[in-house]
UniProtKB/TrEMBL annotation:
<feature type="domain" description="Aspartate/ornithine carbamoyltransferase carbamoyl-P binding">
    <location>
        <begin position="7"/>
        <end position="148"/>
    </location>
</feature>
<dbReference type="InterPro" id="IPR006131">
    <property type="entry name" value="Asp_carbamoyltransf_Asp/Orn-bd"/>
</dbReference>
<feature type="binding site">
    <location>
        <position position="169"/>
    </location>
    <ligand>
        <name>L-aspartate</name>
    </ligand>
</feature>
<dbReference type="InterPro" id="IPR002082">
    <property type="entry name" value="Asp_carbamoyltransf"/>
</dbReference>
<feature type="binding site">
    <location>
        <position position="139"/>
    </location>
    <ligand>
        <name>carbamoyl phosphate</name>
    </ligand>
</feature>
<feature type="binding site">
    <location>
        <position position="86"/>
    </location>
    <ligand>
        <name>L-aspartate</name>
    </ligand>
</feature>
<dbReference type="GO" id="GO:0016597">
    <property type="term" value="F:amino acid binding"/>
</dbReference>
<comment type="function">
    <text>Reversibly catalyzes the transfer of the carbamoyl group from carbamoyl phosphate (CP) to the N(epsilon) atom of ornithine (ORN) to produce L-citrulline.</text>
</comment>
<protein>
    <recommendedName>
        <fullName>Aspartate carbamoyltransferase</fullName>
        <ecNumber>2.1.3.2</ecNumber>
    </recommendedName>
</protein>
<dbReference type="GO" id="GO:0044205">
    <property type="term" value="P:'de novo' UMP biosynthetic process"/>
</dbReference>
<dbReference type="Pfam" id="PF00185">
    <property type="entry name" value="OTCace"/>
</dbReference>
<feature type="binding site">
    <location>
        <position position="58"/>
    </location>
    <ligand>
        <name>carbamoyl phosphate</name>
    </ligand>
</feature>
<keyword id="KW-0808">Transferase</keyword>
<dbReference type="GO" id="GO:0004070">
    <property type="term" value="F:aspartate carbamoyltransferase activity"/>
</dbReference>
<keyword id="KW-0665">Pyrimidine biosynthesis</keyword>
<dbReference type="InterPro" id="IPR006132">
    <property type="entry name" value="Asp/Orn_carbamoyltranf_P-bd"/>
</dbReference>
<dbReference type="GO" id="GO:0005829">
    <property type="term" value="C:cytosol"/>
</dbReference>
Length: 318
């Protein structure tokens, strides 16, 4: 299986063959879990530490469950009450953790680049669970697996990513992944929520939902990230929903078999109409949550294999 990475810090370093290898393994885990299997031993001799400097429900619980299903010893640290509050630097924290000899370190941090800095200071495999506005690689991978399962392929699709692009690390990772897999990506949203330099992203940009969703195979809605906004990016939530919230009338411009996605948590009636979110014929939002566990299992499994190989004495098979 072709996967050469020592860490999973972002989508950018991944080759298409590595993305496919990870998704194939995740598919196997997903199917086995649906058949009733809940335990594996891929990480049975390993320790996984979760460090979430930002609050999370879906991502943290998904990583915890993934590690436990693979047999790891899993520890989640309450970073809001950690020594960082007492003045310890991020590097000092990394060195302290490294002295505990963990095997896998899962990190979410509000600052872009913080996870990469940690990875430079430790001897274990590091997985980026979201860093600032930079990347959220496992979210893009679980989105990719969900798309592949629903559409039967992950290439030559038209994908509309709609909403708060400027503040979204999910959008950035998805743009990178979908581009690597030869898809047509369309960013849809108000100009105030488009990132600087968007014309250099190799994507189409629309500020009108009807044009943006025209003939789309996949409609991916994004959360309004008000916690990252420091100004008036939208006139009001009501006006935002009127122009950019996904409802039946707007969705009608996509292909009849288009699927609807959202990384969560959803603001119903702001980014998406509740009826659309709950439509079992169009919405794959719940499957995204399910695929999150499978993708994180696959990522940790592959990184653990490479870690064992790197630690093995020269000439000895891991």
């Amino acid at each position: 299986m072709t996967f050469t990475q020592s860490h999973l810090l972002g989508i950018e370093p991944l080759h298409p063959v590595e993305i496919t290898a990870l998704l194939d393994l995740a598919q196997d885990y997903a199917e086995a879990a649906r058949a009733g299997r809940r335990r594996w031993d891929a990480l049975s001799d390993m320790t996984q530490i979760n460090m979430f400097f930002e609050a999370s429900t879906r991502t943290q619980s998904s990583f915890e469950l993934a590690g436990k299903r693979l047999g790891a010893e899993v520890m989640s640290m309450a970073m809001q009450s950690s020594s960082l509050k007492k003045g310890e630097t991020l590097i000092d924290t990394a060195l302290t953790l490294n002295a505990m000899r963990p095997d896998l370190l899962v990190v979410r941090h509000p600052n872009s680049g913080a996870v990469d800095l940690l990875a430079q200071k430790v001897t274990c495999a590091v997985l980026n669970a979201g860093d600032g506005r930079h990347e959220h690689p496992t979210q893009a991978l679980l989105d990719a697996l969900t798309i592949r399962r629903a559409k039967g392929r992950l290439h030559r699709l038209t994908v509309a990513i709609c909403g708060d692009i400027a503040h979204s690390r999910v959008a950035r990772s998805n743009i990178l992944l979908l581009g690597k897999m030869e898809n047509r990506v369309r960013l849809v949203g108000p100009p105030t929520l488009m990132p600087a330099g968007v014309s250099d992203f190799g994507v189409e940009v629309e500020d009108d939902m009807e044009r943006g969703l025209k003939d789309a195979d996949v409609v991916m809605m994004l959360r309004l990230q008000k916690e990252r906004m420091d100004g008036g990016f939208i006139p009001s939530e009501r006006e935002y929903f009127h122009r950019y919230g996904l409802d039946a009338a707007k969705l009608a411009h996509a292909k009849p078999d288009a699927i609807v996605m959202h990384p969560g948590p959803m603001n119903r009636g702001v980014e998406i109409d509740g009826t659309i979110a709950d439509d079992i014929n169009r919405s794959v939002i719940q499957e995204q949550v399910e695929m999150g566990v499978a993708v994180r299992m696959a990522a940790m499994d592959l990184l653990a294999r490479n870690l064992r190989a790197a630690r093995a004495p020269q000439g000895v098979m891991a």
